[in-house]
Amino acid sequence: MKKYLLAGLLVWLPLTLTVWVLTSVLGVLDGVFGWFISATQAVLPMAATAPLEALRHIPGLGVIVTLVALLLTGVFATNIVGQWWLKQGSRLLNRIPIVKSIYNSIKQVSDTLFSSSGNAFREAVLVQYPREGSWTIAFVTGRPGGEAAHHLVGDYLSLYVPTTPNPTSGFFLMVPRRDVIELAMSVDEALKYVISMGVVAPPMGAVAEVIPARN
Fold first, then answer.
1. Which of 181, 187, 179 is nearest to 154 (CA)?
2. Ranges of each domain in the chain
3. What is the longest distance spanned by two Cα atoms in the chain?
4. How many whole angstroms separate alpha carbon 144 and alpha carbon 155?
5. Distance separating alpha carbons of residues 177 and 154, to the nearest angstrom
6. Using CA of residue 58, residue 60, residue 64, residue 67, what is the dihedral sign?
7. Which of 5, 43, 89, 174 could serve as a FRET partner for 37 with CA atoms 20 to 30 Å apart?
8. How high is the pLDDT of residue 35?
């Protein structure tokens, strides 16, 4: 009986969690879309609000509108006129005392993580943490910079060590490159390995060749 219950749980648990996550995301996007409709209705005449109210009850429309908005924003941001307007908006936000600190911090992180020319989370490595002889998986986020780099002599890497099973929190380390073992597994495979607490190991073909650490 216990074996059959566990087998059934292993079938339904991933499916249920997947549906729950997708439903939550759809709910958030529909909520944002509903807020936008409410804000629009507040400034439009009463006669024009009826068609907008009908849009509120179309399931999944918030997702479509969000994707279209992101696409149009991307097109706008990649041309000369759009870049000029974005710079003006950034300058305006940088003049607001508290807003500028929050905006600049988030913008720097997002530009680093999602830039196609960046190196953040492009490589998985092994590093000894939290003590010598104990190894964990980390992700290379770049090289130390600023004052920290001035005090570090030699070739250092900036690493993000995620916690398990929630990889959105973790630790930031600056370690010598010689103390790091580069892995052949992809970042996605390494994340699965971390989230599963080592239960879901990458295929042997992906880890058959370990690149030696550089001196």
1. 179
2. 2-114, 124-207
3. 73
4. 9
5. 9
6. positive
7. 89
8. 79
Nearest to 121, CA basis, from 200, 206, 188, 192: 188
CA separation for the pair 211, 149 (Å, rounded): 25
Joined together, the tokens standing for residue 202 give: 């990458």
- Residue 207 binned pLDDT confidence (cut-offs 50, 70, 90): very low
Q: Which residues contact 30 (CB under 8 A, 6 or more apart)?
A: 59, 60, 61, 62, 63
Which residues, 6+ apart, have CB-to-CB distance to 74 below 8 Å? none
Q: Name the nearest CA neighbour of 53 among 42, 63, 69.
A: 42
pLDDT, tens digit, 9 for 90 and up, residues 143-171: 888 898 889 989 999 999 998 888 888 99
Supply 90's token pair.
């950034």
Look up residue 141 and give its two tokens.
């986020």
- H-type alpha helices, the chain: 2-43, 49-56, 61-77, 80-93, 97-114, 146-151, 187-195, 204-207
Token duo for residue 104: 């600049």
Q: How far apart are CA 35 and CA 197, in angstroms?
A: 39
Q: Which residue has the tokens 């005090």?
A: 151
Instruction: Identify which of 168, 175, 171, 164 has the alpha carbon closest to the alpha carbon of residue 132.
Output: 175
Residue 130 DSSP SS3: coil
